[in-house]
């Protein structure tokens, strides 16, 4: 067997990234069970998701950059080990505090996404890079949705700790395969890691995402939310200043200003707002009792089955997107995916009277996610120099997560502001929320239209790419 076969490399990368993506959503439907089993409060158990989100946001661009510098395989294996350790600690967690710490450790593996994209770019023949990235994006998207489908059967047959024991078993094999069969990167960036910039990046991301994710509990006008948002603005400004003068920038601002990068990132922010909010709130919508006037009284497993059309459509769209790249370029796929997301959210807002209506809307949204996920990654990878792939795709994933946090927070505010007499959310909150998410997806489609058509690099673009990877002392000459 060829140890460095692109197909074998892809299989190992897909397995690792797929497990991480699965863990993003696998625990979500089981949070009420975790709350009961660990004898904790609802506000405390939400930190199981918040801690994971914050950790991934901090480590994804930093480890993406380290992978560009010291080797993507080495960093990939380290991220997989962190994921395994985090799952082991979570499976054994005796209380909510230990479980939250475990989720922080798991979040380190968010770097698997940019590292995998970078390895595909390094190792695949040029003609197969786009399809490889599309297929990987499809695996990530499907894994993220599949967690909501599998959580019910796993918890029903075993208990919630097996949501982590099963990944421990699988990851043990993946780590060995990655060490043996994933080749080390031939392309390396120059310089080192600007640790001050890394601390500032971590600071403003936490200061932004923490109040946004907790705003529903703390209140949008609370001192904690407003104070942290102000801190985020200040730290972001300082980070921009530090990055602009650093000899070894973590996220090179020249790369981020490339037209294909900033337009794709804008679309990612807006589409992420719709995508993550649908994932977070659609299961709760269908699990609401029929007495509310809109829910179907589904259990965790039933809600997961209603999400199955979305998962299947994600996979089909993601795989086909790569194969049709020549006739259906990434820009067109991103625009179409965002438009399908807008249509799906509009359907959820206006036609949700039966499980079939929800299943159809979920399938349409799945098609949109599959196309958008693959195309965003492809647009970023092909727009930046090879030595910046990890950092740039990591930041794209982060921007999508930031959008998701904002979308989920706004959706939560709408849903919780309209309550029935028994304290359950009213239908009005959901319909207004889904309408807002449709607007986000529509705005993402307009942003996608601004992405420049891909063509051979012009001298200006080539100069920008060269400057983006050159040390600060050389940039003035460029």
TrEMBL record:
Pfam families: MFS_1. Residues 9-456 form the Major facilitator superfamily (MFS) profile domain. InterPro entries: MFS (IPR011701), MFS_dom (IPR020846), MFS_trans_sf (IPR036259). The chain crosses the membrane at residues 45-64, 76-94, 100-120, 132-156, 162-181, 193-212, 218-241, 262-282, 302-322, 334-352, 358-381, 402-421, 433-451. It is a multi-pass membrane protein. Keywords: Antibiotic resistance, Membrane, Transmembrane, Transmembrane helix, Transport. Its main location: membrane. One of its GO terms (cellular component) is plasma membrane. It is found in: Cell membrane. GO terms for biological process: response to antibiotic. One of its GO terms (molecular function) is transmembrane transporter activity. This is Putative major facilitator superfamily transporter.
């Amino acid at each position: 067997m060829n140890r460095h076969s692109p197909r074998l490399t892809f299989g190992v990368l897909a397995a690792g990234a797929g497990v991480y993506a699965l863990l993003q959503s696998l625990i979500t439907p089981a949070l009420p069970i975790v709350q009961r089993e660990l004898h904790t409060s609802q506000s405390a158990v939400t930190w199981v998701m918040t801690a994971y989100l914050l950790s991934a946001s901090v480590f994804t661009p930093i480890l993406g950059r380290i992978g560009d510098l010291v080797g993507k395989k080495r960093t990939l294996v380290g991220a997989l080990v962190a994921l395994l350790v985090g799952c082991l600690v979570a499976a054994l967690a005796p209380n909510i505090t230990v479980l939250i710490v475990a989720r922080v450790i798991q979040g380190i593996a968010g770097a698997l996404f940019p590292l995998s994209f970078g390895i595909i770019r390094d190792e695949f023949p040029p003609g197969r890079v786009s399809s490889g990235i599309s297929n990987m994006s499809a695996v990530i998207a499907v894994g993220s949705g599949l967690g909501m489908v599998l959580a019910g059967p796993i918890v029903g047959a075993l208990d919630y700790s097996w949501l982590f024991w099963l990944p421990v078993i699988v990851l043990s094999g993946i780590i060995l395969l990655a060490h043996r069969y994933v080749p080390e990167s031939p392309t390396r960036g120059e310089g080192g890691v600007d640790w001050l910039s890394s601390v500032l990046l971590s600071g403003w991301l936490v200061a932004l995402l923490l109040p946004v994710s907790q705003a529903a509990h703390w209140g949008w006008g609370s001192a904690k939310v407003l104070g942290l948002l102000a801190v985020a603005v200040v730290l972001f400004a300082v980070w921009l200043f530090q990055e602009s003068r650093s000899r070894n920038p973590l996220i090179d601002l020249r790369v981020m200003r490339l037209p294909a990068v900033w337009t794709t990132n804008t679309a990612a922010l807006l589409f992420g707002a719709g995508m993550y909010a649908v994932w977070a709130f659609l299961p709760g919508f269908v699990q609401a009792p029929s007495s509310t006037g809109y829910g179907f009284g589904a259990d965790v497993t039933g809600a997961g089955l209603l999400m199955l059309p979305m998962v299947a459509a994600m996979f089909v769209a993601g795989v086909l997107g790569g194969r049709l790249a020549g006739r259906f370029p990434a820009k067109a796929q991103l625009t179409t995916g965002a438009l399908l997301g807008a249509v799906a959210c509009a359907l959820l807002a206006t036609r949700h009277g039966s499980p079939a209506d929800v299943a159809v809307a979920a399938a349409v949204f799945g098609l949109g996610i599959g196309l958008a996920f693959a195309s965003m990654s492809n647009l970023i990878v092909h727009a930046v120099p090879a030595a910046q792939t990890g950092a740039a795709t990591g930041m794209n994933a982060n921007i999508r997560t930031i959008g998701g946090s904002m979308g989920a927070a706004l959706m939560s505010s709408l849903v919780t502001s309209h309550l029935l007499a028994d304290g359950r959310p009213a239908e009005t909150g959901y319909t207004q929320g889904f309408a807002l998410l449709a607007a986000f997806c529509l705005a993402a489609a307009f942003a996608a239209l601004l992405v420049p058509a891909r063509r051979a690099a012009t001298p200006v673009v080539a100069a920008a790419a060269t400057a983006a990877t050159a040390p600060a002392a050389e940039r003035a000459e460029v």
